[in-house]
Design brief:
homodimer; 378 residues; alpha/beta; Rossmann fold; 8-stranded mixed sheet; two-stranded antiparallel ribbon; globular; oxidoreductase (chains A, B); protein homodimerization activity (chains A, B); Glycerol-3-phosphate dehydrogenase [NAD(+)] (chains A, B)
């Protein structure tokens, strides 16, 4: 551990309550998660330090520094306007100051800033710090797939779980009912009193934000990434007016392919993470009923325009993550020679980028892989 | 076996192809299923007798007998207008004539006629005849729950499976893509060559209507009944504009309660029937996104009117099955003293019939049963 760390608490109590929490990131989801956490730390002062620090990338906004505005008005006027934040949530512009003395780090930054933030934090984090990543998705390369939480874990040497679910920042901020899944296996160096499922449940659970803690990080990470490809396919068939049952059929086949992908690339992941959890089936349902990927695909189907043109026209310079994921997954399964195991993902890619007709979908799904098991009887 | 049965085939070949098929029922779903079957028997003349008989309750329609119209024009003008039926689908007004010589019976009649039809058939069906019931649901009494397929099996002494899925007759008739699940365990007296999963797959699978055969009749029957209660709850929260993630959360919690109910009342049923099959998760998704039960509940939430008044106003004398099921399930779990295991079903009942506020839902779901397992770690 670097000598530059000074703790006002001694080594031996890093694993013991009260735990100090820092949220790294302050976009609309980061601020929302910080709000939820601050509500809970305030209510559980034996378990948590009441003060929650939120690292905010400092910027000028409406004539003031954003951190000063947040600390004075308790509103993140730029990224979560009109939502009153708890007084015990403090905005901190200095990254290292924000994490000093914290036992629990919650990562909630855009993917593209992850490497930079991690390089700044590296060497400054006590190895017994516990982390939860709210970044959705996977890092897909041509031959392999990596969990974003593993990237944090490797760079900083700290045990990292992840949080994902059927959530929209605005809804959670307005205290509308939803749920989320936290995946946090017990650390190998766990001692009773350390951060565990109960601690994280208490940190995140609100009457309007229900938590389920599981131990399958890979499962929820994969679901979070692949749902976007499925949403595109559902958008296609919605655009062609094939009906709700066609959409449900595509959603179901997508769920089965997610499971197959999970078990293939992360054999220890659990089927139930996909089929029973908020981060699995629930998030798949919402993602397939609206959202950018769905809308982009629907417009492709109704207008005949290319993915590229629709993305420009519809999304105003923003990108649809599903397009990237569809391409990355295609490359991966092509290089691993297992395309025929994923007819929905592969056909979606072909429709998106190679002009294949949407009408081919039922035919491509009508093969031996259409059964979730190869034999009719289990 | 009654002496009144005369077969033009001998006893020893009742279990062998080619199999003759009769569809009992000719409403819009019955006629659609008969169409699908007739397309397949025509294409597989070694496995099936090409002629498919459909028992049609004879009535006058537009100046003619309905069976005559169907056989002349190949359109069921009353129950499936504008859809051309295959020439090898023959309408038969005499129930016993329609089933004579058939190896496979497909039941597709409204629930209220089941007892009467069974009493007419009793004693006239060869015990080695195989059946598939398309009737959705359960027979719920105050202390018990029975599968509709078991009722057919008991009355007629024939092995009976069932078919259910995310299907709408009109969409399947128009050959829009969808899927369905068939549950058909191998009969105990099965001999190779007899009706099995492959036979049923071939009988029902079309390029636009994909089949998965499993062996869990209880699972898909329970899903088919309970989804309607869940759809009501989703309708409530949609009516209050709680957002898509609230709806997905309710859908997910409903799925978990379905599973719990299934395992409690039919311990041999499989979790995957609910979480992976068309008759499970896919039908749940479509039922919760539209349909009578959803719409009724949504209107209750937006207007404050009672279930009874909305049913009259919205459904024109038709009934919403979910209201009946919610009441029946409430009585059953009350008598079996396990209400606290089903907070979503119970709270939905209380909202429907005892004026409890919809707003209580998150609180009622926020208890130890909110976790799919009692411990955080499996």
């Amino acid at each position: 551990m670097s000598e530059s760390i000074s703790h006002s608490v001694s080594y031996s109590s890093i694993e013991k309550p009260p735990f100090a929490v820092t949220v790294i990131g302050s976009g609309n989801w980061g601020t929302t998660v910080a709000k939820v956490i601050a509500e809970n730390t305030r209510e559980n002062p034996l378990l948590f330090e009441p003060i929650v620090r939120m690292w905010v990338f400092e910027e000028e906004y409406q004539g003031s520094k954003l951190t000063e505005t947040i600390n004075k008005t308790h509103i993140n006027t730029k990224y979560l306007p009109d939502i009153k934040l708890p007084d015990n949530l403090i905005a901190e512009p200095d990254l290292l100051k924000s994490v000093e003395f914290s036992n629990i780090l919650i990562f909630n930054i855009p993917h593209q800033f992850l490497e930079k933030i991690l390089s700044q934090l590296k060497g400054h984090i006590h190895p017994k710090t516990r982390a939860v990543s709210c970044l959705k998705g996977l890092r897909v390369s041509e031959e392999n797939v990596e969990l974003l939480s593993d990237i944090i874990q490797k760079e900083l040497g700290i045990w990292t779980g992840c949080l994902a679910g059927a959530n929209l920042a605005q809804e959670v901020a307005l205290q509308k009912f939803s749920e989320t899944t936290i995946a946090y296996p017990l650390p190998p160096d766990y001692i009773p009193g350390d951060v565990d499922a109960t601690v994280l449940y208490t940190l995140f659970h609100r009457p309007y934000f229900h938590i389920h803690v599981i131990d399958d990080i890979a499962g929820i990470s994969i679901a979070g990434a692949l749902k976007n490809i499925i949403a595109i396919s559902v958008g296609f068939v919605d655009g062609l007016n094939w009906g709700d049952n066609a959409k449900a059929a595509i959603t179901r086949r997508g769920l089965l392919e997610m499971i197959r992908f999970g078990l293939k690339f992360f054999p220890s992941c659990k089927v139930s993470s996909f089929t029973e959890e908020s981060a699995g089936v629930a998030d798949l349902i919402t993602t397939c009923s609206g959202g950018r990927n769905f809308k982009l695909a629907k417009m492709m189907a109704t207008t005949g325009k290319s993915a590229h043109d629709v993305e420009k026209e519809l999304l105003n310079g923003q990108s649809a993550q599903g397009l990237v994921t569809a391409k990355e997954i295609h490359e991966l399964i092509k290089n691993r020679k297992c395309q025929e195991e994923f007819p929905l993902f592969e056909t979606t890619y072909q429709i998106l980028f190679h002009g294949v007709s949407i009408g081919i979908l039922p035919y491509m799904l009508e093969n031996k892989w259409s059964q979730s098991k190869q034999n009719f009887y289990n």
